[in-house]
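Sorry, any thoughts here?
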Amino acid sequence: MRLPIPKGVERRLQPLKKRADEFLRNWEWTWTRAFVAGVLVSFIAITTLAVIPSWMLFFADETLQWRTRLMITIRDIIVTGWLGTWAGIFVIAAYIIQVYRRKLRGERQAERYSGGYR
C-alpha cells in the first residue's frame, strides 16, 4: 500500500528521486566506502539501541521517580518496544534498499531460494 502524495510535492521531489535512483544504480562498494558505512551504521545502531534506552531507564528512575512495581513494568515495556522497533527498522530498511537497488539495475531475484535440483 502506498500513501497518496500530493501532486505538487511529487513534482518538487522528482529531481531528488532521479538523483537518488542514479546514485543507487551506479553505487559500487570499495573497502573504504564499506568501512565508513560500517562505522556510520555502527554509531547509529549503538546510539539508538544502547545509549538512548540507557538514558530512558536513568531518566525514569532518577528524574521521574518511577520506583513502584507498576511503573518499573511500564518503563521496561517502553524500552523493550523502543529496542524492538529500531532493530526491526534496521533490518527492514536494509532489505528495502537492497530490493530497490536490484530493481533499478534490472536484476532479478532468485526464483527458487532453496536451490537444489528440480
The first helix runs from residue 7 to 26. The radius of gyration is 21 Å. Helices lie at 7-26, 31-63, 69-105.
